[in-house]
Amino acid sequence: MDNTEPITRRRRDRPECPKARLLRRVGGALWARVCPRVCVDTRVCPRVCSARALSLNINVPGVYLSYPFCAQKCTYCNFSSGVFPRDLEVRYREALAREIRAHHFAWTPGTVYLGGGTPSNLAPDALRALLRPIPGHPWAEATIEAAPGNIAPVTARAWADAGINRVSLGVQSFVEKELRRTGRTHTAQVVSGEIAVLRAAGIHNINIDLIAGLSGQTEASWRESLDWVERLAPEHVSVYMLEVDEDSRLGKEMLLGGVRYGALDTPSGDATADFYELAVERLAALGIARYEISNFARPGFESRHNLKYWKLEPYVGFGADAHSFDGRTRHQNPESVEDYLSGAGQVAGWGAGHINAVPHRSDERFFVGLRLSAGIRPAPEEWRRFDAPIHRFLDAGLLETDGATLRLTKRGVLLSNEVFQEFLNL
Length: 426
Hints:
Layout: H1 18-26, H2 50-55, E1 62-67, H3 86-102, E2 111-116, H4 124-131, E3 141-146, H5 153-162, E4 166-172, H6 176-182, H7 188-200, E5 206-212, H8 219-232, E6 236-241, H9 249-255, H10 269-285, E7 289-292, E8 295-297, H11 304-310, E9 316-318, E10 323-325, E11 329-332, H12 337-342, E12 354-357, H13 361-369, H14 380-385, H15 387-396, E13 399-401, E14 406-408, H16 410-414, H17 416-421
Parallel strand pairs: 1-2, 1-9, 2-3, 3-4, 4-5, 5-6
Antiparallel strand pairs: 6-8, 7-8, 10-11, 11-12, 13-14
């Protein structure tokens, strides 16, 4: 999920611009998992037409595979994933494999990302069958998202043999009370043991996902989760703030004022923001620096694949709800598993699915590039085009500049959604 998403809690009294929501869902998935979980849900990676890529004379170095099947649906999850009949999962694997094989790779990918859902539930033979048609093995970075609780030594070795060298663990919390309210069944001890299993198999690039704002979470319990991060010493950590919307059971219950899933026991927005800032400080002290709003890494362990989203580099994705970007145009595969299967024979080209032109690449560059701690270096015409919002946010202390680079301030990070929307459609 370190993709994914996301960032800071947006104000509930201000509707979100439709384009901003589209970009969040495209950009992590895109944007995993892009919000307060500003999602830049790594999972939102799509698929690009090689002929069009060649016509633009560009390389497409990243591949994303969507596997939206889970053993159970977590209460906080707002992705197009869930529990489906077994026969549907088999048909989906076959369709996904056909789509990958039908694609003409006119380039050699440098990264591969398997997102979900829970792709870690794939049997070793099924995983190898999906990865085999993708050129470039062994890839510089190949990530699989995994739910703690079912990573055995034989599984970890099979992943490594298939080319997987990075695992993103959807831990979310190390506190049992918080985990049970989400529907998760693992424990802190299980996570610890499985990280040891992964390292023994030769996988030494591990991400841990945490969510600030879960039901029952307190400052003390949040510190407990951060203590476990220090103890386990992962190379990468993703910290998302709970996103409240109607696409998750917990979010919908909170919006309706209900009590299920611990909806009345979730921390306030201010408390959640405090938890996030505490994580930033604690992780920095551990040598795990923030390089993107929701993502933190030791030097050299930043997610190579997800950086493609934030730098607006082309990428290609396969599967249901997969998005692609060829440098000028975004493409989305059918969102639901059923719709994807019904059109699987046509998904291999840009003629199927939904296409969104990108008339002003600058606004997207501001939207995603400002997520990076390094910021962006606007071109002269961009300084002129966005002069009004830039100076307004500089005066408000949400942006800072050295004259060439523009980046969010500490306060700007917490209000990043407010900043981003001002750069859309100007």
